[in-house]
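PROTEIN DESIGN WORKSHEET
SECTION A - STRUCTURE
LENGTH: 352
TOKENS:
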């Protein structure tokens, strides 16, 4: 390896990462630097519809009574794994707060929460942990999650960022996550997370709901969980994002004056009547999403791990698993040259 590294640097390579796997599947990973030095990479995970530790999962031999009951189902490795993973939750509203509450109870050790909004009165019917007094005090949604984690006293490290998903400030934090939950209702945030998952090989578990009351009084309630990892199709292929709405959201955020002017002229979407939301449905979809995370670490759903796409039709009492036709021209998952490519200029190959 040392000779190989020297040759590589002589040929002008800027860095070398070596991976050596022996017949017993022992693995060594080293990062070589131009000065001839090397650094051991302590933790190696295999990422796909299953998330597996190949190296570096430290086993906690201490008695953990709090998480004993779930270890009885999945084995103690499960508690060790969730304790050492870094999980991002983007969006801290109805579904995001429920996802965070579940991750805290599962024993996840490190949670990053990103949301730019403060709590409003109309959120209290579905945001877990939120109080009436928080609205007066203009508590941020991320601080609500941090407080929830502190009050359980179960020890997760929670990092919060009051920003929107795609902001420059949150990039490095998101890049350091092992798994990211997309619990945002903004389309531009979803488009960003979709690209981030593809470029950085970070499993994305995205969730969403659509509820509608028809004029005759009957209701439709759709809940959706989509998991995007190598081998699965991306959110764009499933058509869960609207690029026109994303463009309108970006305009509203970056140039509110123009947005409102265009809105008056009915050239942009958004605003209008708020969509309906009921806590039982939002929380159930959060459970569906966190169960995909559990499936990535265990085999409870079978050896395939996470399900690519599940739509729960609450009103029809069924689950559907639609698969879109293959699109090799997809601007995200069709670009195989950037799969797992990590840092590129410009970031995520998005100009501007
Ligand atoms: Zn795609």
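SECTION B - SEQUENCE
RESIDUE ASSIGNMENT:
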């Amino acid at each position: 390896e040392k000779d190989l590294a020297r040759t590589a640097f002589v040929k002008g390579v800027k860095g070398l990462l070596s991976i050596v796997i022996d017949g017993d599947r022992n693995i060594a990973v080293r990062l070589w630097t131009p000065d001839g030095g090397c650094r051991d990479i302590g933790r190696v995970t295999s990422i796909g519809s299953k998330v597996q530790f190949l190296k570096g999962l430290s086993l906690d031999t201490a008695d953990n009574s709090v998480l004993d009951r779930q270890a009885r189902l999945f084995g103690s490795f499960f508690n060790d794994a969730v304790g050492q993973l870094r999980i991002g939750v983007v969006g801290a509203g109805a579904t995001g707060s429920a996802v965070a509450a579940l991750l805290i109870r599962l024993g996840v050790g490190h949670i990053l929460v990103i949301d730019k909004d403060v709590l409003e009165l109309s959120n209290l019917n579905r945001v877990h942990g939120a109080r009436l007094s928080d609205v007066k005090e203009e508590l941020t949604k991320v601080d609500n999650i941090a407080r929830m984690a502190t009050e359980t006293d179960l020890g997760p490290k929670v990092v919060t960022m009051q920003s929107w998903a795609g902001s420059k400030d949150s990039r490095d934090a998101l890049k350091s996550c092992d798994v990211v939950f997309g619990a945002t209702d903004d389309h531009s945030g979803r488009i960003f997370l979709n690209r981030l998952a593809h470029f950085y090989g970070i499993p994305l578990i995205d969730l969403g709901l659509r509820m509608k009351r028809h004029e005759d009084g009957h209701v439709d309630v759709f809940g959706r969980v989509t998991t995007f990892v190598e081998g699965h199709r991306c959110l764009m292929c499933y058509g869960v994002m609207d690029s026109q709405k994303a463009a309108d959201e970006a305009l509203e955020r970056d140039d509110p004056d123009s947005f409102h002017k265009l809105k008056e002229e009915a050239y942009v979407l958004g605003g209008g009547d708020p969509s309906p939301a009921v806590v039982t449905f939002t929380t159930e979809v959060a459970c569906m999403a966190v169960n995909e995370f559990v499936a990535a670490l265990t085999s409870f759903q079978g050896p395939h791990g996470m399900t690519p796409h599940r739509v729960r039709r609450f009103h029809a009492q069924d689950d559907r698993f639609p698969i879109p036709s293959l699109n090799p021209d997809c601007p995200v998952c069709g670009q195989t040259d950037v799969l797992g490519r990590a840092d590129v200029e410009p970031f995520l190959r998005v100009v501007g």
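SECTION C - NOTES
The chain has a mean pLDDT of 92.
The longest strand covers residues 204-213.
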